[in-house]
């Protein structure tokens, strides 16, 4: 089959499409009104969660009855936990704002690059979060350590060991099988896009 | 512009250019259900960006850009959408707003050939088959005009070989 023949098939197909396609404007109108609303709801829920997460944290702290104590443990804990929590909160908000700023009416290559950069940002965010998380957890434990009765027997230590084990496994699998491969692929994609833009 | 007037204007534009959406959705989906979802997604993205469209480019350029960008990034969005599927919307989804004829066997072969191409080449050949100039293809995709020409030459050869094996 020659290319000119394929082009003829395409033109005939195009003609047939425009002749035989009819829109039911009423259903479409209802869909246009309701679906963006649904997407907006999803965005609002996500935004609400991110914005309200400090309040949720405060509520959690209130439930645990965490009090300001003039002890070195508490201040060390707070100075570990608070900056890490603030940084990750700012990153989440920034990521959310970046997602919202993507405009699909831009050229295809620009959008491909923006999305690849966004994915990279998300991976970086996950990687640094994983690295900082143990410090935040230690900080939190130091803040509430006066409430914990530590006795060095197997039953008391077992939950802590399980938490550490799950965290290390998760860290290992995320870094080894997910983050590096994805990051390498994204960098390659971005290089290719930049190359295409230069050509 | 009032909401109703904006809606009417959008629906008119959509009706005139629905062919673009159907062809792109067909090329970027594997199943009929996927295609329907993609048509809906493209339409909604167009509607969302319609307010921002100031007429700086041709309407067809805007539609091609939104349709291609949505198609290339649709899988992730659809998975996300499924998490918040509301029951009250099912009534609209069970009714299709578009009535189209099934494709001919010839156009199916052509789509099978296009399906073998990578995402970007797929976009370029769809734009080329639709009769867009190299300038327009460059404007829609962001690839330089010279590169568009080179790529079209290569894709043509690729499609020709694929068509021979499929017929």
Précis, in short:
Chain A has 199 residues and is an all-alpha fold.
Key features of this structure:
heterodimer; A: 199 residues; mainly alpha; 2 domains; 5 helices; B: 167 residues; Rna Polymerase Sigma Factor, Chain: A; Arc Repressor Mutant, subunit A; 9 helices; globular
Low-confidence stretches of chain B: 79-94
Low-confidence stretches of chain A: none
Q: How widely separated are the two ends of chain A?
A: 32 Å
Rg of chain A, nearest Å? 26 Å
Provide the gyration radius of chain B in Å: 17 Å
Superfamily at the CATH H level of the largest domain in chain B?
A: RNA polymerase sigma factor, region 2, helix turn helix motif
Number of domains of chain B: 2
Q: Spell out the helices and strands of chain B N to C.
A: HHHHHEHHHH
**Count of structural domains of chain A:** 2
Q: In whole angstroms, how far apart are the ends of chain B?
A: 52 Å
For the residues shown, what is the average pLDDT of chain B? 80
| CATH topology description of the largest domain in chain B | Rna Polymerase Sigma Factor, Chain: A
Largest sheet of chain A: none
Shape of chain B: globular
Helix content of chain B: over 70%
Task: Enumerate how many helices of chain B there are, as a single number.
Answer: 9
| SSE sequence of chain A, one letter per element | HEHHHH
- What share of the residues of chain A lie within helices? over 70%
Q: Outline of chain A, from the CA principal axes?
A: elongated
Structure annotation, total helices of chain A: 5
Characterization of the model:
The complex is a heterodimer of chains A (199) and B (167). Chain A contains five helices and one strand. The longest helix of chain A has 45 residues, at 154-198. Helix content of chain A is 85%, strand content 1%. Chain B has helices spanning 3-27, 32-50, 59-72, 74-83, 90-93, 105-115, 119-129, 134-141, 145-166; one strand at residues 98-99. In chain B, helix 6 (105-115) packs across helix 9. Chain B folds into two domains: 1-100, Rna Polymerase Sigma Factor, Chain: A (Orthogonal Bundle), CATH 1.10.1740.10; 103-167, Orthogonal Bundle (Arc Repressor Mutant, subunit A), CATH 1.10.10. Chain B has 167 residues and is mainly α. Chains A and B meet through helix 1, strand 1, helix 2 and helix 4 of A and helix 1, helix 2, helix 3, helix 4 and strand 1 of B. Strand 1 of chain A pairs antiparallel with strand 1 (98-99) of chain B, so a sheet runs across the interface.
């Amino acid at each position: 089959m020659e290319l000119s023949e394929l082009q003829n098939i395409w033109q005939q197909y195009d003609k047939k499409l425009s002749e035989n396609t009819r829109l039911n404007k009423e259903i479409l109108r209802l869909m246009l009104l309701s679906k963006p609303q649904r997407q907006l709801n999803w965005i609002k829920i996500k935004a609400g969660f991110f914005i309200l997460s400090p309040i949720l944290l405060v509520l959690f702290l209130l439930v645990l009855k965490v009090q300001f104590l003039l002890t070195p443990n508490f201040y060390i804990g707070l100075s570990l936990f608070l900056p890490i929590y603030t940084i990750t909160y700012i990153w989440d908000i920034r990521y959310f704002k970046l997602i919202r700023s993507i405009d699909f009416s831009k050229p295809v290559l620009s959008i491909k690059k923006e999305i690849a950069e966004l994915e990279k940002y998300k991976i970086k965010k996950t990687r640094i979060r994983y690295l900082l998380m143990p410090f935040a957890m230690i900080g939190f434990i130091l803040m509430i350590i006066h409430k914990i009765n530590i006795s060095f027997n197997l039953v008391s230590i077992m939950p802590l060991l399980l938490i550490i084990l799950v965290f290390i496994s998760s860290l290992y699998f995320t870094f080894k099988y997910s983050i590096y491969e994805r990051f390498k692929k994204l960098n390659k994609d971005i290089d290719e896009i930049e190359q295409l833009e230069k050509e | 512009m009032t909401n109703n007037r904006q809606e009417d204007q959008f629906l008119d534009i959509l009706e005139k250019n629905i062919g673009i959406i159907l062809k792109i959705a067909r090329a970027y989906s594997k199943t009929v259900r996927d295609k329907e979802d993609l048509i809906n997604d493209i339409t909604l993205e167009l509607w969302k960006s319609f307010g921002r469209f100031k007429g700086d480019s041709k309407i067809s350029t805007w539609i091609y850009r939104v349709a291609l960008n949505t198609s290339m990034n649709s899988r992730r969005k659809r998975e996300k959408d499924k998490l918040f599927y509301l029951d009250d919307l099912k009534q609209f989804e069970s009714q299709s707003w578009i009535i189209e004829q099934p494709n001919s066997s010839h156009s199916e072969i052509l789509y099978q050939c296009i399906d073998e191409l990578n995402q970007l080449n797929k976009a370029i050949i769809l734009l080329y088959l639709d009769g867009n100039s190299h300038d327009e293809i460059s404007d829609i995709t962001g690839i330089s005009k010279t590169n568009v020409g080179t790529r079209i030459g290569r894709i043509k050869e690729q499609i020709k070989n694929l068509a021979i094996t499929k017929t």
